Amino acid sequence: MPYPVLYSFRRCPYAMRARMALLVSGTPCELREVKLSKKPDAMIAASPKGTVPVLVQTSGAVLDESIDIMQWALRRNDPEGWLQGDAATIIATNDGPFKHHLDRYKYPSRHGSDPKEHREAGATILAGLEERLQSGSNLMREQRSLADMAVMPFVRQFAETDRSFFDGLPLPQVQHWLDRHLQSALFRNAMLRVDPWQPGDPPVVLVAD
Fold it and tell me: Most CB within 10 Å of its CB: which of 82, 125, 169, 173?
């Protein structure tokens, strides 16, 4: 039985959140790890913009935005109720202002930016998450939801840019929230390590334990 094909890059936060939604929804897919310096022709043919993740459904329909992939998978099956509630504002802040500052903090030479300025701006946005987490274990409720899984990979990237700086921030709830999700079975399964895909390789199926 053919599975949807997911072109992915293990360390990309957009791809991470897509993989987690596919896993939690119980949607098996053929995982094709992409080498960013040599993107597969099949991926470019499916999505000429050339960014991961790209999901090619068994019908041939293509989704090449991570949030669209998450919502597609969860509409098929949402056992944890991730789609309950309105996560749009939280995700928009993450994908807009926070990602803007994260890129300029992590890659200052690429952007010609002052990393400290953008680090502080990113930390200010994280302080907003800290406030939300004062009233619950996760961003919208006690249980994890779409908001947590859409945002967490980007907070991880911010933290890993300078872990000592992140650990020293007065954000204990954010730090605990991040560590808890990083230690989860869902994240572990989503971070499956595979070699870059080449045509003719046997399929690697992404499935939950």
Answer: 82
Q: How far is residue 19's CA from residue 199's CA, in Å, rounded to a whole number?
A: 21
Q: 169 vs 56, 126, 138, 158, 174, CA distance in Å? A: 41, 10, 19, 12, 10
CA distance 66 to 118: 24
The candidate with the shortest Cα–Cα distance to 180, out of 140, 158, 152, 146, is: 152
Q: Which residue has the tokens 């953008």?
A: 118
pLDDT at 172: 98
Angstrom distance (rounded) from CA 159 to CA 175:
9
Assess whether pLDDT exceeds 90 at residue 208. no
Q: Are 170 and 133 in contact (CB under 8 A)?
A: no
Could you tell me the CA-to-CA distances from 163 to 46, 84, 115 in Å, in that order?
Answer: 37, 33, 15
Q: Is the pLDDT of residue 1 over 90?
A: no
- Report the run of H or E that residue 104 belongs to, with start and end: helix 99-106
**34/37 Cα distance (integer angstroms):** 9
pLDDT digits (tens, 9 = 90+) for 103-143: 999 999 999 999 999 999 999 999 999 999 999 999 999 99
DSSP label at 137? S
CB 15 within 8 A of CB 68: no
Quickly list DSSP for 49-91: T--S-EEE-TTS-EE-SHHHHHHHHHHH--TT-TTSS--HHHH
Which structure tokens are listed for 113?
A: 């930016």
